[in-house]
Design a protein that fits this description.
Blueprint (H helix, E strand, L loop, with lengths): L2 E5 L2 E3 L5 E8 L8 E6 L6 E6 L7 E2 L7 E6 L4 E6 L8 E7 L18 E2 L3 E5 L2
Parallel strand pairs: 2-11
Antiparallel strand pairs: 1-3, 3-8, 4-5, 4-9, 5-6, 7-8, 9-10, 9-11
Length: about 130
Amino acid sequence: QVQLVESGGGSVQPGGSLRLSCAASGFTLDTYAIGWFRQAPGKEREVFSCISTSDDSAYYTDSVKGRFTISRDNAKNTVYLEMNSLKPEDTAVYYCATDPKSLGYNGNYCDQLDYTDWGQGTQVTVSS
């Protein structure tokens, strides 16, 4: 059974940092694409970062590029999201997800995959 569990959310001041974790069970995480999504109040959930099975194929939206870094620890079957220089507009519930059809996917369009397996989400609040 595929399961994804996010952790590491919390409240920080603008300019602060957080590291989110996405721990996987039921599948080997490094053989599938993993996406990070977020949903702010009143807005649709959006993909802002993802990584294919090739670590060179990480994707970031412009709003987080240069501030967020996605990485993977295969030994721990976990994907991380390092978030620096956080802004109030980063406030949202953060989710990780995978596309069960993305086995072996190493392309450059992980943001366009069909993510259907989701974690429960973790809240990130950036406020002074």
